[in-house]
């Protein structure tokens, strides 16, 4: 990636990135109303101009529930989370945490012949630091749109 700064809080840099993920049960199911769900994600980033190495890993393990009384396209995923991060720009580069959270995923874009291909997801977690820097603890929130 080539990053171009668009403000004082951003930086121009070149970024090399490698990522891996593996998921089970993250798709919307038409027949089941609940199912086991988990995923693991890992990423390593190397900034070249302002040398920085960043790595993250996260696993979420739980069970998904389709919220039919609200919408057949809405899924709730309560989960346990295990996370690790590394950032060599911090005095204490390592941070490890464990916690619990929940995700709401709303699927959309279906047609008469096509299952919903897109979703919006909101995740809220609370993590307890188990080792490393204090940035590993507290409330974590994430939202994403997969279109």
Give the secondary structure arrangement, pairings included:
Blueprint: E1 2-3, E2 13-24, E3 34-47, E4 52-66, E5 74-87, E6 94-108, E7 118-132, E8 138-146
Antiparallel strand pairs: 1-2, 2-3, 3-4, 4-5, 5-6, 6-7, 7-8
Features:
single chain; 147 residues; mainly beta; 8-stranded antiparallel sheet; 8 strands; globular
Structure description:
This protein is an all-beta fold and about 150 residues long. Helix content is about 0%, strand content about 65%. The chain contains no helices and eight strands. It has an eight-stranded antiparallel sheet, with no helix packed on it. The chain is globular. The mean pLDDT is about 95.
Percent range for β-strand residues: over 45%
Percentage of residues assigned to helices: under 10%
Termini separation = 21 Å
Low-confidence stretches: none
Largest sheet: 8 strands, antiparallel
Class per helix and strand makeup = mainly beta
Order of helices and strands: EEEEEEEE
Number of strands: 8
Principal-axis shape: globular
Mean pLDDT: 97
Structural Rg: 18 Å
Describe the structure concisely for a colleague:
This protein has 147 residues and is mainly β.
